[in-house]
Amino acid sequence: MKSAKDGEKAKRTKKIGFVDPQGDSEALDTRKSYRKSTYPRESLSALARKSSVLILSRLMGPPMTSSRIDRGLYDRTSMYVVPRFQNTFRMESKNPFRREVMQSMMGHFLHTYLDEYKYVAKRAKRLAENLSEELRNQFKLCQFERYRYVALVTVGDKKMQNFRCVARALWDPEKDDCISCTYEAPPFFVVASVWTVYYE
Length: 200
Hints:
Layout: H1 4-12, H2 44-60, H3 66-71, H4 99-114, H5 124-141, E1 147-157, E2 177-184, E3 188-198
Antiparallel strand pairs: 1-3, 2-3
């Protein structure tokens, strides 16, 4: 014989399942259905091994063709593919950087851009962003081979204050270069610098 405590325990046990909303609550035991598990059957270490092998095979494999690039555009592992270039065995640039020409171009560009500019202090940040982007684009238009450009523009108010602009860099003194130019107007000043870094 079952005791009263065992009967109470049986009533308290919860049954997990999905009940048909049109059926009776008494038919809970007969209409039980469980969801299939979505957890992968393979272990996590096996999945990690497979993904690392896949990435390494793509890195060490042949260069990607245009069709493979289009297919793998939205693939998560396509960001790890290293671009491959043919060796030219040429150490020097065919179109080397010319400092004197670019210095005069940079000064002329600043004067034409800022001579009729109405300075507003709240828009100084936007002015610096636009100038740096335009300067970098002007340098790119000259198509010096194997060079990368970094443009930095500083804009400030003239309020009888002292100002010092200093930059340091670690580079190749024969191939890398830096051009700096200043522009002064009664309400503001601009210091623009462009670093040209040789990229083999």
